[in-house]
Amino acid sequence: MTEPAGMRASDSEREAVVERLRVASTEGRLTLAELTDRTEAAYLAQTQGELAQLTADLPGGAPAPAYAPAKPPGKARQWFVAVMGDTKRKGKWRVENEIAAVAVMGDVTLDLREAEVRSNEIDIVATCVMGDIKIIVPDGVDVQLSGVAIMGDKKVKVVEAPPGQHAPIVRVRGYVVMGDIKVIGDSHAAPIRRNALAWTEWWLNRRGLGHGSMHGAINQAVNDSIRETNRIVNDSIREAVRDSKTAWKHRDH
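Structure for DUF1707 domain-containing protein, as requested:
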């Protein structure tokens, strides 16, 4: 008889888990990277047991209705301004309302991967005059970039989720004059530290990043090379010790 955890998951069960994850994010329990990772993992899950692992560290109870909470009325924007200088925001921080980024002959970097978000959508108004604005997001989010660029560039380099998945949305309205606005994903930025949860290994394998993939093969080759180097070094040390002992014995005689 099939164990409950091994029972095949249905589409409705996957959507229910995705909604529960979204609610956990609005409650400040998950960062944007964690929400994105687990949302993708939910859509890739094949059994009820795999789905259960994604919410094992979250409170129980029925998920809330499938809509994003309204932004507080009259709430001021979060401003990040760089005028002939640099402004960076990364690590743990909270996004509760619209973000405004302004770079005038300067650079603004916003890393959203470890941010706590209070809705399924993040709105950013980016204004760049002879400067650069870089927005770093987890791969798997839905990036919507619009606006105007005059003698400048607006670029998106993000591995987005497949169509039909309810991935978190990052909406950027960009206005560029002789500058650049870039939205980049994990694969184009320095990695962040993620929690090693029980579902990570099967999730990586589902994405083609596990031990059975090229990524795993490369890691294995590196580890084998390190072990071989250590063996050669240890053998050389032992041989040097033996030679020194032999030399001292011959010297005594």
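Confidence is low (pLDDT under 50) at residues 62-70, 211-215.
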